[in-house]
Design a protein that fits this description.
The chain is 53% helix and 20% strand. The N and C termini lie far apart (52 Å). The chain has one domain: Beta Polymerase, domain 2 (2-Layer Sandwich). Helix 7 packs antiparallel against helix 8.
Length: 225
């Protein structure tokens, strides 16, 4: 389904949605609207925590460790696609239990050390629970991808209840983010065969990016610490 959708970007997405999926989404539109609102609130909660940490660090050290914060709420169609791909029935319960990246936050930090400073400060807060951690900075993927991935639980406080929601937080440096963004543009360019030679060249670019981060961190310690 996803390949069909990518190959027909100029046509309405609903042309390629399983009719049963579309029917389910329409029948459960109110519940899905509420659920997505909860995820949006969870993003807001975590984003606020990150902004507070950034401000505190700025007051103490006269610089901001966070360059940019980007947020993303996964589309309902992408969510249902993922359920179907994993042979899971279309229920709100399955979305909450099995789809971990509905709410996403990407934190772009100035230096590699800042990635870990912010991650540790966030995880030390008593209302944040770490579910899973993947350190692709210490252990990069084969293609050269580097980032620190955290899957966390965060509470949101509604008028009459408290809900615990999952949020995926990715932390990376400016250099890591530039490489990842360009890699995605190049690798998934429509109607272009991505060869092994191209992949190897991208890996070399990732290594150069890692070298840049290393050198910039070294300079930061000399200038700032």
């Amino acid at each position: 389904m996803e390949n069909i959708r990518k190959a027909n970007k100029n046509k309405p997405v609903f042309d390629y949605v399983n009719p049963q999926t579309l029917k389910w989404v329409k029948e459960h539109s109110e519940n899905m609207t509420n659920l997505m609102a909860y995820y949006k609130c969870a993003i807001m909660e975590v984003e606020t925590k990150l902004n507070v940490l950034n401000e505190e660090f700025s007051l103490q050290h006269d610089r901001n460790p966070i360059s940019t914060i980007k947020t993303r709420l996964k589309s309902i169609i992408s969510i249902t696609d993922k359920l179907e791909l994993n042979d899971l029935s279309l229920t709100a319960e399955n979305i909450e239990q099995y789809i971990n990246d509905v709410a996403g936050i990407r934190v772009i930090c100035s230096f590699t050390d800042d990635v870990y400073i912010i991650a540790n400060a966030l995880l030390s807060q008593d209302d944040i629970t770490l579910i899973r951690k993947k350190d692709y900075i210490a252990h990069p993927k084969e293609n050269g991808y580097r980032s620190l991935h955290l899957l966390i639980n965060v509470p949101i406080f509604l008028a009459n209840e408290k809900k615990i929601m999952k949020v995926e937080v990715q932390l990376r440096t400016i250099a890591m983010d530039v490489w990842a963004s360009l890699e995605h543009q190049l690798r998934y360019k429509k109607n272009v065969h991505f060869s092994d030679e191209m992949a190897e060249e991208l890996k070399k670019c990732a290594d150069l990016s890692a070298e840049l981060d290393y050198r910039m961190d070294k300079l930061r310690r000399q200038v700032i610490d």
